[in-house]
DNA sequence: CTCAATTTGTTCGTATGTATG
DNA sequence: ACATACATACGAACAAATTGA
């Protein structure tokens, strides 16, 4: 069995899609540059250890995406880069987070006034008496880039009521005079799109998403705000300078 | 056309795998709990709008993974949770990063003393004269969880030579008396496994990975350390408290 | 201009996988 | 379990376009 066939056994995704993924990445990372002539079908057959037709299917996929352009007798050329909207910069301090959310264009798509409690993990505080559930979608250029599933403690929801329908909840909570936020636990993982998420983000079921969970705990240890945010993977990037706060590191420092 | 069929059109992944992904996630998130009897085939058929056999294929997949257990005449039951090794906690300050790397068990799998230059993005400094390329795999419990592709400026490599073969490079660099690190740019995105990465992490080609790029820039603006780290998606999590540095947030604060 | 080499495009037959009802 | 339809993948042969000697 060839090397790739055994990898194929691991993933069960159609081979030509796997091959296309790798090629797409090569273009994306600049390994194959726009205008380049890529390897011949024959070479690709050998490299990936698959049949000619399979390579052609992969190329056809990327042709539809506008990344490749095959010309009979000449070769196959790179004709573009995958579109990325990595304009999202996840915050890693609270103020940046709040101010970046403030300007978001969002659309509430679902509200349940009587909602099941969120599942809290170790260290995420204790449950409030009851929660309201809000779901919204964030857009940029009319393209959806994230879905927010928010469990909001009813006591908080009642303070501002209808305002939560049209505005992001987090900045509103920060403004509340009688609420103290003791912790803001953030957890970032890679997840897969549920039917609802896939539908709202216009991606395939089970495709990867960047999942960010944000839990706000008040001074009595109650989780008043539990958000599960699913980002479209191409819209997600987290950038920071690890030395931003501490300044340059002189040699030999402990 | 049913709702799911149209989602299927977007993803091109076999339908039963998509269905299995959703079910797996339900178990993972605690929506379906161990011991539960899940919906009947008939209900699932309707919910996902697919044929009975397709549901059975999905269940069979999860049965092989030990998550489900179907019993004729009784129903299908949850028999376990997906294994996650989310013990990785990506640092978001430099010292934590360095000290967490120090203890890593790694295996160098590939070294090129004469290597191509890395591709630097805007703001990641300027290229050094030449680079050495090092590839290593990190293990935990004999399971690979990350692949590091490192371009190290030759001037740095020459200072410690063979030591880089067996030890993580970053702590070594920090200890160097005549090297100043001015910036440590970190970028986190979601990527896909290349053939090499898939092979080393034992995952399928094109499966999602958490990609972390770390670029160290010295005081003359040269990128002396350019690492592309690919984490297994189940081993990756980033956790922090956004209020850790600033302390609790009193209500009404601007 | 012709010829040969190179490279993509097309087709056939076969086998297996996926999905429906 | 069965009949049906279509997708995926292989290997091999042949056709058509391009290039350069």
What key attributes describe this structure?
two-stranded antiparallel sheet, about 250 residues, alpha+beta, Chorismate lyase, homodimer, about 30% strand, 9 helices, six-stranded antiparallel beta sheet, about 30% helix, Arc Repressor Mutant, subunit A, DNA-binding
Overall description:
The structure is a homodimer of 254-residue chains. The N and C termini of chain A lie far apart (51 Å). In chain A, the strands form 2 sheets. Chain A has a 6-stranded antiparallel sheet with strand order 3-4-5-8-7-6. Chain A has a two-stranded antiparallel ribbon with strand order 1-2. Chain A has 9 helices and 9 strands. The radius of gyration of chain A is 23 Å and the shape is elongated. Helix content of chain A is 31%, strand content 30%. Chain A has 2 domains: 3-78, Arc Repressor Mutant, subunit A; 88-237, Chorismate lyase (3-Layer(aba) Sandwich), CATH 3.40.1410.10. In chain A, strand 4 (131-140) and strand 5 (143-153) form a beta hairpin. In chain A, helix 2 crosses helix 4 (52-64) and helix 3 (41-48) crosses helix 4. Chain A is α+β, with helices and mostly antiparallel strands. The longest helix of chain A is centred in the first third of the chain and has 14 residues, at 15-28. At the A-B interface, helix 1, helix 2, helix 5, strand 6 and helix 9 of A face helix 1, helix 2, helix 5, strand 6 and helix 9 of B. Chain A binds a DNA duplex (21 and 21 nucleotides) through residues 14-16, 40-42, 50-54, 56-57, 59, 70-76.
């Amino acid at each position: 069995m060839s090397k790739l066939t055994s990898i194929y056994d691991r993933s069960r995704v159609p081979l030509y899609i796997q091959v296309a993924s790798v090629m797409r990445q090569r273009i994306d990372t600049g390994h194959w540059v726009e205008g380049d002539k890529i390897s011949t079908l024959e070479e690709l057959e050998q490299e990936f250890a698959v049949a000619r037709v399979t390579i052609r299917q992969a190329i056809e996929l990327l042709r539809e995406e506008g990344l490749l352009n095959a010309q009979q007798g000449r070769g196959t050329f790179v004709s573009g880069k995958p579109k990325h909207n990595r304009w999202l910069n996840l915050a890693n301090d609270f103020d940046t987070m709040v101010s970046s959310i403030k300007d978001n264009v969002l659309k509430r798509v679902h509200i349940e006034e009587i909602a099941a409690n969120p599942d809290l993990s170790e260290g995420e505080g204790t449950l409030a008496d009851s929660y309201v559930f809000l779901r919204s979608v964030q857009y940029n250029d009319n393209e959806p880039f994230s879905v927010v599933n928010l469990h909001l403690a009813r006591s908080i929801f009642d303070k501002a009521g209808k305002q939560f329908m049209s505005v992001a909840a987090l900045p509103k909570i920060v403004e509340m005079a009688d609420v103290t936020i003791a912790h803001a636990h953030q957890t970032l993982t890679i997840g897969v799109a549920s039917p609802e998420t896939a539908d709202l983000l216009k991606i395939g079921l089970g495709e990867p998403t960047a999942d960010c969970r944000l839990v706000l705990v008040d001074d009595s240890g109650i989780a008043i705000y539990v958000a599960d945010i699913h980002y479209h993977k191409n819209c997600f990037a987290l950038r920071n300078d690890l030395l931003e706060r501490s300044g340059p590191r002189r040699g030999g420092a402990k």
